[in-house]
Design brief:
This protein has helices at residues 5-14, 16-48, 73-79, 125-128, 151-156, 194-200, 221-229, 241-248, 250-285, 287-295, 300-326, 353-379, 383-388; strands at 55-60, 71-72, 95-106, 113-121, 133-137, 146-150, 165-168, 171-180, 190-193, 207-208, 210-214, 236-240, 333-338, 343-348. It has 390 residues and is of the alpha+beta class. α2 (16-48) runs antiparallel to α9. It is elongated. The relative contact order is 0.20.
């Protein structure tokens, strides 16, 4: 016969002070757990959204990122004639050879320098990355010392405002537009004419870090890759753009997840001990109640179930509070160093229903661990001994 649940509810209400301590401990742990996971999720989502299944990236064979890549103008001319490449409104193949580098610009929030990624692109880049839209001003004119900046770069770094002129390498460029890349990593970048950006940093305008092409369809990728990789004149690797950016997110996402898991684990130990203390205290105070229930016919398993249920109730409330407390972080923009490109990347916390469910489950696990031993102890209280204390 099971002990009525209302008994547990009244018990928690009667011992609300100790219950609050356990609830707050679990809430804090769940809050940190969800916040760290949402941080990793936001970073990964920002990078992955930079890629498109319709685009392919070409880099030097063996290069791990654009920063370590290198392809010449001869390779660009060969790749332009490969099968599977879409053509733009002017009939030209949608190919953008790109110069990728970093430059220090002060953060508005701290005044300290951060590495901002500068990307030299072709004039047709908006047709290739068709999710990117100019939201203020206009696109830069090829051949002119003009740049456009991402919306996050615009609000994160000093001087990146529309109409301002900034030094990049040994040239000065005018900011003529602000673009919105849909929350992707491009929103933290500066774009300009690749034939000017490279020479501004003393690089030949015939040398690029990567090439991005827009395909006629996602299904054309394999045909395009086979043609490029098998060409004896080329020594390059070909990947889907979305796969490249997904891989770029792995290192920092893993680091955040591991560190967050470590912090949450340490806090979880404290929260479990808080739950243990609360439940052991309840067992000690309710010895007579337990004995009375046992004498009335409630068996040991019923007592164990009742106390575990009470611990889970406390944990569930703590988990809900922890999730509610971190909800305002959703969409909040922060920044971190991309360990693959050594550039500063702005991204937002991403709290999803899945993470909230994980947070509540984490709380229930802590509650179960914290309530099981006291529950077993309560079930083992000798009925005769406890009744003699009445």
């Amino acid at each position: 016969m099971a002990i009525p649940i209302v008994y547990n509810l009244r018990s928690v209400r009667a011992r609300w002070t100790s219950a609050i301590v356990a609830v707050l401990g679990i809430a804090g742990t769940v809050g940190v757990f969800v916040a760290m996971l949402s941080l990793a999720r936001g970073f990964k989502a920002t990078l992955v959204s930079s890629g498109s299944v319709d685009n392919a990236m070409i880099m030097r064979a063996g290069a791990t990122s654009e920063m370590t890549g290198g392809v010449g103008i001869d390779a660009v001319k060969i790749i332009q004639d490969a099968p599977g490449i879409a053509r733009g409104s002017d009939g030209q193949p949608l190919v953008t050879p790109e110069v990728v580098l970093v430059t220090p610009i002060p953060l508005i929030s701290t005044g300290t320098d951060a590495n901002v990624q500068v990307r030299g692109v072709s004039k047709n880049v908006l047709e290739i990355r068709n999710k990117v839209k100019i939201v203020q001003g206009r696109m830069f004119q090829p051949g002119l010392s003009e740049v456009v900046v991402g919306k996050n770069a615009n609000v994160s770094y000093a001087g990146l405002t529309l109409g301002n002129t900034i030094p990049l390498g040994n040239l000065r460029f005018k900011i003529v537009g602000i673009f919105d890349a849909g929350g992707s990593s491009f929103d933290s970048e500066i774009w300009g004419d690749g034939h000017l950006i490279g020479p501004a940093y003393n690089r030949p305008d015939t040398f690029f870090q990567s090439i991005t092409v827009h395909l006629v369809s996602p299904q054309a990728f394999q045909q395009f890759k086979d043609a490029v990789v098998s060409d004896p004149r080329l020594n390059v690797d070909v990947v889907r753009e979305i796969d490249y950016y997904s891989k770029q997110s792995t290192r920092l996402t893993t680091l955040i997840t591991v560190l967050g898991g470590l912090v949450a684990s340490i806090m979880a130990i404290g929260a479990v001990f808080g739950a243990l203390n609360t439940m052991y205290s309840a067992v000690s105070e309710r010895g007579r109640e337990i004995a009375t229930m046992r004498a009335l016919g409630f068996g040991g398993p019923s007592v164990v179930f009742s106390f575990v249920l009470e611990a889970l109730l406390i944990a569930f409330v703590g988990g809900l509070i922890g999730c509610i407390v971190v909800l305002p972080l959703n969409g909040l923009t922060t920044g971190a160093m991309n360990l693959q490109t050594f550039s500063h990347l702005a991204f937002a916390f991403r709290i999803t229903p899945e993470l909230l469910v994980k947070g509540v489950i984490f709380a229930l696990v802590m509650g179960f661990i914290g309530g099981l031993l006291p529950a077993v102890r309560a079930a083992r209280v000798p009925v005769a001994t406890a009744l003699r204390e009445l």
